[in-house]
Write a structure and sequence with these properties.
Radius of gyration: 16 Å
Number of strands: 15
Distance between the termini: 36 Å
Helix content: 10-25%
Shape: globular
Structural class: alpha/beta
Strand order of the largest sheet: 1-2-3-4-5-6-7
Mean pLDDT: 98
């Protein structure tokens, strides 16, 4: 069956097969978090984006083929509830932005800044720092050489708006980063994989940018 991105807690992962990368999306935990397992087709190396909850289900998804890294998109607890257990069980290196890393339950092996890259075997993820939801929130960009861009946004961009902020200054910071670092840099067919809920595309969201500015959230 073709990938839809529609998952539910307790249900199976939805798997998207790209020529060079396999993306498995699974919903876990009481806040219906998305976790994404990315595995390089050529080498078998894998990374997990957000070990959010339910370590047993994440480890079952990872299987016996190993895990190189766990990337945490930001410091909110619902995105790292299973981080210690998954990293401990797999020996995976932990990755986060330095502004959020001190809030995580385990030490961070690799600190990444805006513009850095993270390998997934022979594939590459580009780090995009999106300031506002938390100081160290990051998105991860994968450019499919045979297709379009795939963007994992944590809680910084969802269908219908940017992530939650707690002040006007934080909102202005986040909307500016999302506009200049995502919408201005990527095409409408860019597929967006958020930290909760269903997927979207930049083309579906772009017409709403003026409304987001006006409403302030």
């Amino acid at each position: 069956m073709s990938y839809t991105g529609n998952t539910h807690v307790g249900g199976p992962a939805d798997v998207r097969q790209l020529p060079e990368l396999t993306i498995s999306k699974i919903a876990v935990g009481p806040m219906d978090n998305n976790a994404y397992l990315l595995r390089c087709v050529r080498t078998g190396e894998a990374v997990l984006i957000d070990a959010a909850a339910e370590a047993d289900r994440l480890l079952e998804l990872i299987g016996d083929n190993g895990l190189a890294r766990v990337i945490t998109t930001h410091r909110h607890r619902d995105h790292w509830g299973a981080l210690a257990d998954v990293a401990g069980a797999t020996g995976a290196r932990t990755v986060a932005h330095p502004a959020d890393a001190p809030e995580l339950p385990v030490s961070t092996d690799e600190l990444v800044e805006h513009g850095d890259t993270i390998p997934v075997g022979s594939c590459t993820l580009s780090v995009i720092h999106l300031r506002g939801h938390t100081p160290g929130s990051i998105a991860l960009r994968y450019d499919d050489p045979a297709g379009h861009t795939h963007l994992f946004t944590g809680d910084s961009l969802f269908p219908g708006g940017v992530g939650k902020t707690w002040s006007d200054a934080d909102f202005r910071s986040l909307i500016t980063d999302v506009e200049t670092r995502i919408f201005d840099q990527m095409d409408d067919d860019t597929w967006v994989y958020p930290g909760h809920g269903r997927d979207t595309t930049l083309g579906a969201e772009r017409p709403s940018l003026p409304e987001w500015h006006r409403r302030g959230w």
